[in-house]
Amino acid sequence: MSIVxxxxxxxxxxxxxxxxxxxxxANRLCEASGTRDIIFLVPAKPSLTSGALNQALGATIHxxxxxxxxxxLSSGAQMHCETIKTLQWVTKPSVLIAVFAxxxxxxxxxxxxxxxxxxxxxxxxxxxxxxxxxxxxx
Length: 138
Fold this sequence. Notes:
Elements: E1 5-8, H1 17-33, E2 37-42, H2 45-49, H3 53-57, H4 59-66, E3 71-72, E4 78-83, E5 94-101, H5 103-110, E6 115-122, H6 129-135
Parallel strand pairs: 1-6, 2-4, 2-5, 5-6
Antiparallel strand pairs: 3-4
């Protein structure tokens, strides 16, 4: 069993730029590891269709994810969106970005097999405090 890389990307600026930053980090991880799949995990579909994600991701990426279309990044990896309800298992090695992460989301993520890396982007600094204590992410 391989070791899953865990990275914490907290919002310190309140601009949601850390969300776009997480996509860049995931892209670099895919490039370095040869992974070709990125899962952009949101709590629920309204998290994607309303709020700050349009501004944070840019219209092109956001619109593709809303329409359930994959987005090809510069590494060649394809990013697609899932919600806590739709993500049941991981079928190929993947990097997962947990956006607006809370403890319940991270518990589900920790139960998944096949992840190369997990990037946690919490809603608030203390939202995944137990996950941070358990894994000591980078």
